UniProtKB/TrEMBL annotation:
One of its GO terms (molecular function) is MAP kinase kinase activity. Residues 8-270 form the Protein kinase domain. This is mitogen-activated protein kinase kinase. It comes from Brachionus calyciflorus. It comes from the Eukaryota. Keywords: ATP-binding, Kinase, Nucleotide-binding, Serine/threonine-protein kinase, Transferase. Its EC number is 2.7.12.2. The lineage of its organism: Eukaryota, Metazoa, Spiralia, Gnathifera, Rotifera. Belongs to the protein kinase superfamily. STE Ser/Thr protein kinase family. MAP kinase kinase subfamily.
């Protein structure tokens, strides 16, 4: 089936990022609802090859197909000075979820953190097998819904934005691994292990309610924190040995010594909760509060 941009009915606002807005949109002919990210095409390197106001839903297999922890990616089109990127809709992202948990003064259960760790590691392992990496793992690119599903988004988007501002800006953020700054560390090049570092940072952030480099001063301060200081660590007196060990294994500065996806899938922190489903009552309690903010925004 073919979708034309003018058949999409704009619905609820879902969020705003550095490069565009994400809205829920309904497509009546197929009865499908999408999350549509609209990025101004001036941020894109060249538009000539993408002058398509329509998008084919039956396009060749997309990368996320077959992986339950990757957001379904339907495709992209170019219309009205925007690139429209169509994906599956979720209820919110982890940056908002964890912020709400701590604002409500409640705990972030390790059960939940373990489910996040598992979903992201599973998604990265899937991408690794497809010879891809993510490059932008962070809480706002980890989405969840009321049924407790946790999925990674914004993968493969970098293909649309090569050499654009997006990649330049992305290179300069708080989740980047030491080998991206210090080439001396990256003996085997920049690989999926970079995403594992970002996962470790994200898990510390959602567990403590704070980004571990929140106190770094400017870009130089941040670079110093990442490359020169010891890697961030969870407080052993507040978190289980399994969770502390999981983040320690993600946050090894030399990429070759950092855990691989299979090491992590086999880790005690994942195994500990493997048989326990996510706590849907807890998720609903927090998500209802998150939703209130989005309506007000
Ligand atoms: P960033 O990831 O840097 O926050 P984005 O433009 O990628 O910026 O996304 C903006 C916000 O939109 C996200 O933080 C998230 O809360 C929301 N969002 C993105 N994609 C979806 C989706 N598929 N379903 C629901 N919400 C989404
Ligand atoms: Mg995003």
């Amino acid at each position: 089936y073919t979708i034309c941009f003018d058949e999409l009915e704009k619905g609820d606002f879902l969020g705003r990022g550095q490069f565009g807005t994400v809205k829920k949109m309904f497509h009546q002919p197929t009865n499908l609802t999408f999350a549509v990210k609209m990025v101004n095409d001036t941020l894109m390197e060249s538009n000539d090859s993408r002058n398509s106001e329509i998008m084919d839903l039956a396009a060749p297999l997309k990368i996320g197909d077959g992986c339950p922890s990757l957001i379904k990616f339907y495709g992209a089109m170019h219309a009205e000075s925007y690139i429209w990127i169509l994906t599956e809709v979720m209820d919110t992202s982890l940056d908002r979820f964890y912020a709400k948990v701590f604002a409500m003064g409640i705990e972030m259960p390790e059960l939940f953190v373990s489910k996040v760790a598992y979903a992201v590691t599973y998604a990265l392992d899937f991408m690794r097998k497809a010879k891809m990496m993510h490059r932008d793992i962070k809480p706002s690119n980890i989405l969840l819904n009321y049924t407790g599903e946790i999925k990674v988004c914004d993968f493969g988007i970098s293909g649309f934005t090569t050499n654009s501002v997006c990649t330049t800006f992305k290179g300069c953020q708080r989740y980047m691994p030491p080998e991206k700054i210090d080439p001396y560390l990256s003996g085997n090049g920049y690989t999926i292990r970079a995403d594992i570092w970002s996962l470790g940072i994200s898990l510390i952030e959602i567990s403590t309610g704070e980004h571990p480099f929140k106190d770094s001063n400017g870009v130089l301060g941040l670079i110093k924190s990442i490359v020169q200081n010891d890697p961030p660590k969870l407080d052993q007196s507040k978190f289980s040995p399994e969770l502390c060990d999981f983040t320690d294994k993600c946050l090894v500065k030399i990429p070759d010594n950092r855990a691989s996806c299979s090491d992590l899938l086999d880790h005690e922190f994942i195994k500990k909760y493997m048989e326990t489903p996510n706590d849907l009552e807890y998720i609903k309690k927090v998500m209802d509060e998150v939703k209130k903010d989005i309506v007000e925004a």
